[in-house]
Design goal:
Oligomer: single chain
Strand content: under 5%
Number of helices: 3
Distance between the termini: 74 Å
Structural class: mainly alpha
Order of helices and strands: HHH
């Protein structure tokens, strides 16, 4: 298998793992997303290990690579947006819990057990 084909396969693996994270974020399957994250990281490491020289890649294959990268970027952007919304939701819930706990403590101090 040529170095170029190996590199394109590595980027394809990156896209697939990124799309998996995107799907899990859409489904709000946060635990599964965290479990799937190492697959994306492994794909990124495989690309780094290949030490690609993109200038030597034929133009047609560079176009395929650009398309793959654009899809990865779009999926990552959506995933990060969904994660940010989830984090904000969790922060609101935690604030409400803290507020409820503080109110309960005040009532307990004011009125006893």
């Amino acid at each position: 298998m040529s170095d170029t084909l190996t590199l394109l396969m590595a980027y394809r693996d990156l896209l697939l793992s990124t799309q998996e994270l995107q799907t899990l974020a859409r489904q709000e399957e946060w635990d599964a997303l965290l479990e799937a994250l190492p697959r994306q990281q492994a794909a990124q490491q495989a690309i780094e290990a290949a030490a690609p020289n993109l200038q030597q890649m034929p133009a047609e294959q560079r176009e395929v690579l650009v398309d793959l990268l654009q899809q990865v970027e779009a999926a990552n952007k959506e995933t990060m947006t969904r994660i940010a919304a989830w984090r904000a939701e969790v922060a609101t819930i935690l604030d409400e819990i803290d507020s409820t706990r503080a109110n309960a403590q005040r009532l307990h101090r004011a009125y006893g057990a």
